[in-house]
Structure formats: C-alpha cells, structure tokens
Amino acid sequence: MLRLKSLHWISMGLCLYMMLLTPLTASAQNNPQIPIYISQEKQQWEQQPFILQGNTMVPMRALFEKLGYTVSWDMDKQMATATKGGLTIMLTINKATAIVNKTTYLLEVSPVIQGGSTFMPLRFVSEAAGADVAWDETERSVQISFDSTPQKRIRKLIESVTQSSSFVQRVVTLTAGDGIKKNDMIIKDIVMSSDNSSAKIKFEAGFTVSKAIKTTYGVTISPAESVVYEFTCDVFKDSYDQWILQTQPDAMPYEQKEKKPFMQ
Fold first, then answer.
1. How far apart are CA 38 and CA 174, in angstroms?
2. Paired strand residues for 222
3. pLDDT tens, 90-130?
4. How far are the Cα atoms of 26, 69, 221 from residue 55, in angstroms, in the given order?
5. Per DSSP, which regions of 60-166 are E strands?
6. Mean pLDDT, to the nearest integer, of 66-71?
7. Nearest one of 105, 46, 169 to 92, comparing CA atoms
C-alpha cells in the first residue's frame, strides 16, 4: 500500500511538472530568434532578444556597448545611464518614460528584467542614438544603420523631438488646451554653420487643440481649434559625430502662424 501511494504522488508530481513545462516551451516557440544587424554586421547575444507587445526587446548593456556607449547602473533607482560624447540616455526598469539628455519621451513598452537580465526596446534606443531602424520582412530581421548625411540626421533628430512628451507639454502650455493632437511637422529651414559643426533649425508644427466643455451631462473634451506654430532651435555635432539638441523644447522660441476654429 505504501509503495502504491508513493507511486501515486510521483505520478502526480510528473504531471504537474509537464503542465508547468508546456507554457515555457510554447513561449519559446512564440519568440523565435530575431537576427539583428548593426551597420550590416549580424549581432550575437548571450541573452536572446524577444518580442514584447510588438516591440523587439534586447539586452540593455549589450546593445548600449555595441553602439559605443558607456553604461552605469543605479541599483537603488533601478536605472541605467548610457553616455557617449554629448548624448546621455536614461532608462528605468518598469517605467514607461526615458530621458535623452533633458528631453523626456514616452515608451511603448517599459524596460524589464527577464531571466536575470535587463531588456529594453530596441527601436527607441537605436533611434535615440541617431540610427535608422528597419524591419526586413523577407529575412524577418532588424536592420540598424547610420546615415552620414548631416541634413538627414538633423531632420531625424527634430522629428524625434517633436514626438517627445517634453515637446507635447510645451504645446499644451502654449495653447492652454486640455488635450492636443499633432497633425503634421514641416522643417522649413536648416542653416549649417561654416564648419558644419552646428545648425539652426526652423520648423512648423500643427495641432488640433481640444478643450473641456461643461454640459448638462457633465464635462466633455472636444476639438476646439487648430493651430500652427513655427519654432526655432539649435543643434550641434559632438566629437562622436552625433547630432545633439542644444535648445530644449521648453526654451524654443516660437511664433503662432495660424489659429482657426476646428472644422469637422
């Protein structure tokens, strides 16, 4: 009887083990290896990248070091700081914001710890470092490249800045709106310095501004007007050939170019 009971518990234990093992195996199958190329060189990873909420997650320290950054880790704050020349990128575990120099960005997915390693979103970090990120559907791989044309890299920088939460907050303050939607952004002028080490940028950004309206049923937030602002800012090139924003969003001189009631 004792041996039968022992075999019974062993069988139950094996069944439980297989039940626990099955989801892990399925998870591994759902996250096949993702080839990642930096400047056409295929990268090797000790901890394999994976997909999280549609974002490719890569080992934090490994990617930063492959891009030439020096990384420090604050254990108390669970925050990584990566530095290269005049560019600093700060990311915090389970926090959906990142800071690039003094500009704050919202992340689609937060950095996470998995299997004892820290992973971060590949696209955001690569683009913050000035790279272009493309998905190769044929090979199902990620291609990271750096354009050497100053004007293209400057345009990419300004496009990124106008998507930051710091820039959005600047526009919310200017419009006194309760919500805004970015419509378009047009770079009007890039004036390079004589030695091509800095530039002055002029760009226009259009927004739909929503405001809270009190009704008999409560408060609703509805589009009220559309506005267009012209901003100017300065950028410079550091010793690593990185283009850096010199004028932060909250200090960019501006001029209102257009304001009209919102039309459905």
1. 40
2. 211
3. 999 999 999 999 999 999 999 999 988 999 999 999 999 99
4. 19, 22, 31
5. 70-74, 79-84, 87-92, 97-100, 103-106, 112-114, 117-121, 132-136, 141-145
6. 95
7. 105
pLDDT tens digits for 195-210? 999 999 999 999 999 9
Helix spans in 138-191 (H)? 150-161, 165-175
Six token digits for residue 147: 């354009």
- Asked if 189 and 202 count as a contact pair (C-beta separation under 8 A), the reply is yes
Residues in the chain: 264
DSSP state letter for 89: E
- Could you tell me the CA-to-CA distances from 216 to 179, 212, 213, 219, 222 in Å, in that order? 21, 13, 10, 8, 15
Cβ(122)–Cβ(58) below 8 Å: yes
Three-state DSSP class for residue 94: coil
Instruction: Please state the φ and ψ torsions of residue 83, each to the nearest 5 degrees.
Output: -130, 135
The sign of the CA dihedral 67, 126, 33, 17 is positive
Strand partners of residue 114? 117
Q: CA nearest 38: which of 129, 149, 137?
A: 129
For residue 43, give the DSSP letter.
Answer: P
Q: What is the mean pLDDT of residues 247-260?
A: 96
The phi, psi pair for 76, rounded to 5°, reads: -65, -45
